[in-house]
């Protein structure tokens, strides 16, 4: 599934036609398209800055160096300078007056970003700040990032925020690696919270981080699930791809393509949680990564919605997930340092006419990860959700044209995302380096206006 406007914009002659008729001209987005590498910033120019009293700078600079960045300081910037990435450490602010540092640093360089540039800011976690002015300053950084992202998004550039709890500075390397690379292409204008609770694994490899891990991806035969199975396997995981028995043929093909194992199973069957748990235990001794991806839409205005449509969406998108996790977590089928990942949606954040059933399930999953997020920290298990915006899959191809066009264009990048963009975010959250991130809901939506 692809976007006709992105294809047209790649041809210079058609690009001017798009401009003339006043349509947005989507930038071709840079996508990593392969496994993690040790030095993704090699040969790239990165500008680093920090506010007064910033606390994460040492760790940030070590990470930039390890990523192969050619670091520049603000003093060397000229009109011709071009930055592939910019990092600003805004932690340690104690008063909103210090926000002036953001203006002073970014104002002179706003014309110096390359297309597809990556901007990352770090700030203290507002909820645990030491004082009211410190909380205000920290939260203000999020508004700055979201607005900056909207200014630079048309060039395919992104800006994201890493909130760092005091004492969790040594956990920012993983998130920085993700946000500064082309693995995070369609994640834009988003905050991620890195906290110090919960055990980190002893070893945090940056390449092939999932070597030796076993992953379960539900609804993995196609779409986002299949792309996720592929990315997880590229990073070393053995993937158990689950889908309904009626789709056994597509399921087999996908599982084979990623060197994984097919598991035909309807997740709403009463015995599904036990059957899945027994399968994982007997075949692999347990599971490290669970991606609850299977999901359906059955859209109808509530007045016209038959009860079976309500029941079906609630059963697949929400109740089965809770039932499966109850067994997988309860019986310790999920290994230490495991990762539970749910597919929410911007529809679960913003709501949508005709989606009372779907919206309820996807918002329910937000409640789920927020309440479970810190519960298994003693075993290093994290629980997070991703909330995709408009992604080019069978689900969105079925939308009426005008609704589909609205969903595609109403974001900072004027285009829909690809299944691999969601797969990238899920894969990052599955890595050992994301051990400081739990209970988060991260949107992958090109900074969609819906629910923003
Ligand atoms: P898709 O329809 O392409 O794939 C979903 C898969 O889930 C299918 O292979 C289907 O057979 C499987 N499935 C459905 N019911 C099942 C059941 N009872 N047991 C086992 N498997 C079952 O959908 P997609 O677009 O790839 O979406 C994947 C997830 O992402 C869903 O949870 C969806 O709600 C969410 N999401 C998608 C978008 C988007 O724009 N495509 C946006 C937000 C959220």
TrEMBL record:
Lineage of origin: Bacteria, Pseudomonadati, Pseudomonadota, Gammaproteobacteria, Salinisphaerales
UniProt enzyme class: oxidoreductase
Residue stretches in coiled coil: none
E.C. designation(s): 1.1.1.100
Record-linked SMART domains: PKS_KR
Domain of life according to the entry: Bacteria
Keywords in alphabetical order: Oxidoreductase
Membership in a protein family: Belongs to the short-chain dehydrogenases/reductases (SDR) family.
UniProt entry tagged with the keyword Oxidoreductase: yes
Segments forming domain Ketoreductase: 213-389
Protein's organism: Spectribacter acetivorans
Database matches in InterPro entries: KR_dom (IPR057326), NAD(P)-bd_dom_sf (IPR036291), Sc_DH/Rdtase_CS (IPR020904), SDR_fam (IPR002347)
GO molecular function, one term: 3-oxoacyl-[acyl-carrier-protein] reductase (NADPH) activity
Name of the protein this chain belongs to: 3-oxoacyl-ACP reductase
Record SUPFAM superfamilies: NAD(P)-binding Rossmann-fold domains (SSF51735)
């Amino acid at each position: 599934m692809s976007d006709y406007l992105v294809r047209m914009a790649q041809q210079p002659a058609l690009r001017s036609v798009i401009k003339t008729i006043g349509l947005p001209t989507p930038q071709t987005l840079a996508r990593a398209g392969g496994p993690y590498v040790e030095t993704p910033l090699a040969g790239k120019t990165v500008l680093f800055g920090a506010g007064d009293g910033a606390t994460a700078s040492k760790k940030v600079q070590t990470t930039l160096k390890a990523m192969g960045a050619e670091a520049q300081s603000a003093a060397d910037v000229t009109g011709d300078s071009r930055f592939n990435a910019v990092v600003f450490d805004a932690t340690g602010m104690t008063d909103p007056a210090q926000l002036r540092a953001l203006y002073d640093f970014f104002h002179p360089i706003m014309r110096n970003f390359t297309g597809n540039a990556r901007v990352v800011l770090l700030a203290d976690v507002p909820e645990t700040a030491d004082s009211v002015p410190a909380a205000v300053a920290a939260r203000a950084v999020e508004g700055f990032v979201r607005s900056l992202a909207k200014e630079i998004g048309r060039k395919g550039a992104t800006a994201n925020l890493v909130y760092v709890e005091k004492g969790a500075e040594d956990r920012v390397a993983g998130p920085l690696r993700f946000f500064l690379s082309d693995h995070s292409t369609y994640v834009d204008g988003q905050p991620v919270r890195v906290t110090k609770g919960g055990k980190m694994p002893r070893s945090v490899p940056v390449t092939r981080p999932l070597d030796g891990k076993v992953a379960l991806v539900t609804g993995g035969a196609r779409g986002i699930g299949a792309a996720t199975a592929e990315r997880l396997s590229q990073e070393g995981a053995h993937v158990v791809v689950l889908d309904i028995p009626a789709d056994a043929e597509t399921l087999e093909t996908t599982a084979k393509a990623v060197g994984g194992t097919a598991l035909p199973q309807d997740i709403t069957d009463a015995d599904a949680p036990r059957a899945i748990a027994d399968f994982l235990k007997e075949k692999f001794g347990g599971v490290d990564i669970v991606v609850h991806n299977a999901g359906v839409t059955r859209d109808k205005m509530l007045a016209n919605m038959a009860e079976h449509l309500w029941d079906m969406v609630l059963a697949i998108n929400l109740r089965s997930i809770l039932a499966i996790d109850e067994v997988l977590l309860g019986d310790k089928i999920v290994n230490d340092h495991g990762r539970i990942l749910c597919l929410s949606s911007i529809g679960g954040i913003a709501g949508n006419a005709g989606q009372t059933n779907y919206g309820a399930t996807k918002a329910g999953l937000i409640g789920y990860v927020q309440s479970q997020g810190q519960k298994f920290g003693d075993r290093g298990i994290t629980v997070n959700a991703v909330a995709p915006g408009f992604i080019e899959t069978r689900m969105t191809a079925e939308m009426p044209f005008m609704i589909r066009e609205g969903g595609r264009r109403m974001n900072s990048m004027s285009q829909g995302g690809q299944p691999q963009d969601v797969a990238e975010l899920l894969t990052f959250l599955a890595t050992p380096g994301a051990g400081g991130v739990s209970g988060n809901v991260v949107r992958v939506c090109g900074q969609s206006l819906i629910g923003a």
